[in-house]
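yo, Large ribosomal subunit protein mL43 is done. seq:
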Amino acid sequence: MALRGVWQLKKLIVSYCDWGGSSRGIRAFMESELLTFKEKNPQLEVVTELIRGQHPHLKGFYKNKNERVVCVKNMTPEDILLYATRLRNALGRKVVKLKTRHVTKHPSVQ
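structure:
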């Protein structure tokens, strides 16, 4: 997601194994969907990384120095594309639990 017109995700690393069965979906994703994902997101640096013997995952690096890792083992290429777009649309902030349903900058003085 863009915060004031600036996309927050700056780098996406696609890690996979060229032999393992759990990486079958991500290998199909790289053949079919990854090129169109790169073309639709020119602001994003997409890097593929071969790691043998490990389950595949997507790792996103954000401008606020945070990173998110999503395991995509045994997923279809459509599901992997969904997770990649979720990483792209996220702001990279940590999840904060709200104490009340009503959030205000000026709490009541009563």
